[in-house]
Amino acid sequence: MSARTGAQYLEALNSSRRDIRVHGETVRSDIASHPAFKGVAHAYAALYDLQHDERVKDVLTYPSPTTGEPVGTSFLQPRTKADLAQRSEMMKLWSDRSLGLLGRTGDYLNSSVMALAAAQDWFAQVDSGFGKNMRSYYEHVRDNDLLMTHTLINPQANRSQSAGAQRDPYQAAQILKETDSGIVIRGARMLATIGPIADEIVVFPSTVLQARPEDEPYSFAFAVSCDTPGLRFLCRESLDYGRSHFDHPLGSRFDEMDAVAIFDDVQVPYERCFMIRHPEVLTRGKMYSETGALAHMTHQVVLKDLAKTEFMLGLISLICDAIQIESFQHVQEKIAEVINTRELLRAVLRAAEADAEVNQWGLMTPAWAPLNTARNWFPRTYPRLREIVWQLAASGLFGLPTEADTKGETGVDVDRFLQAASLNGIDRVKLFRLAWDASASSFASRQEIYEFFFFGDPVRMAQALVGSYDRTEVKERVNAFLNSDGPLAPLAGPELLAAATGVRQGG
């Protein structure tokens, strides 16, 4: 096979047999026709269709090394900066199409599995078969253009206790038993965003996994199809209310369903296992950092964040045009905040890509420090972007009739009394309903919370940043000044001088 079309994706989704629980209903087939999933499934299908658009297919696809057929560029294992640039262009193009509001498009986990496969020897340190399984799985999802979701964390219960010390030891997914053909998993995992509409679910170790003997049954990495017997998805309430794109322009298109993945004695074949037990190897996120997968995943995320910021900047600018408020100083100050956010993200990406280096697994990998800064900073910045939207739209967010009110006699009132300086009443309502969905609706709230916890607890992320950031040079520079009697801080050695001036040794 090769890069899929949207129709092929939807056909595969509708023909699969799964166990999805949503709104008190069990959904087993025709998933893409169900009201809770139809909008977002068709948004994903449109991204697959884009791979066949003559204008961009050379950016979005490349020849598979095994079949020669075109496959998605997010599977490309970059060996050069040109490869990395193509991946970047592809991921930004996809993010722009969804305004940065789809957080689990295929390129996110494609980037992860791509990097993990390059680092197959990391998995082989325990068992050579695990390395081969990782490589084979990557080639399988690449050449069939499969959509993956993943799940990393245990259900919230007693957070002061380990998974094995909970009242129900099988609340969190664990290895029930090992068999001649693989393992059997019982329990639940959070949080499988897009689980109901994905082809595959990758179950990776939590980044807070510890190397304690009692954690061994909860230590694993594997993947199964989303229609595997015994696997079911327990969904949250849908934020697609079945209304028109006019009424809910974002929620009707981009509500990526979040679900709890429940493993009811699911049998995982050995060839789909990438690690069984060995918490000392999987502990504290080593699988992501030591393989380089985290850098490539974060590269995709920051590109998505840039697209999202650009959407907010465009929306804010149109609001200002519509009601002619940009001349006010406080409005300009707010717009400047959004512009600064965009430019800082652009700078981060430029630095990460310019300073990319080949890692130990042979992949051209974007520099981690700028990406790590962005992933710590943006979750706290995004709420401000949302706040600026509703502050500038102000009371205009409350006088918003629905699309049905724009017809007939009521439509005359809408067009007359809700007009703006540069828009008729109906177009103004349409714009401000978009502002509502971006800043004040349930969809908007979910976006903010999702961004805040995208990589986990921000406090823990900050701890990791502080613990891993090398501050030796800057401390030595200050110490050198303290121990100097001259009018200026003394010149440092070559390494410190290069750091201070931004000049790398050797050019």
From TrEMBL:
UniProt keyword list: FAD, Flavoprotein, Oxidoreductase
Residue positions binding substrate: 104-108, 150, 206-207
Domain HpaB/PvcC/4-BUDH C-terminal stretches: 285-482
Keyword DNA damage: no
Catalytic activity, EC: 1.14.14.9
InterPro entries: Acyl-CoA_Oxase/DH_mid-dom_sf, AcylCo_DH-like_C, AcylCoA_DH/oxidase_NM_dom_sf, HpaB/PvcC/4-BUDH, HpaB/PvcC/4-BUDH_C, HpaB/PvcC/4-BUDH_N, HpaB_Deino-type
Single GO MF descriptor: flavin adenine dinucleotide binding
Domain HpaB/PvcC/4-BUDH N-terminal: 5-275
Entry binding sites for FAD: 150-152, 156-159, 193, 457-460
GO biological process, one term: phenylacetate catabolic process
Cited SUPFAM superfamilies: Acyl-CoA dehydrogenase C-terminal domain-like (SSF47203), Acyl-CoA dehydrogenase NM domain-like (SSF56645)
Enzyme class: oxidoreductase
Protein's name in the database: 4-hydroxyphenylacetate 3-monooxygenase, oxygenase component
Upper lineage: Bacteria, Bacillati, Candidatus Dormiibacterota, Candidatus Dormibacteria, Candidatus Dormibacterales
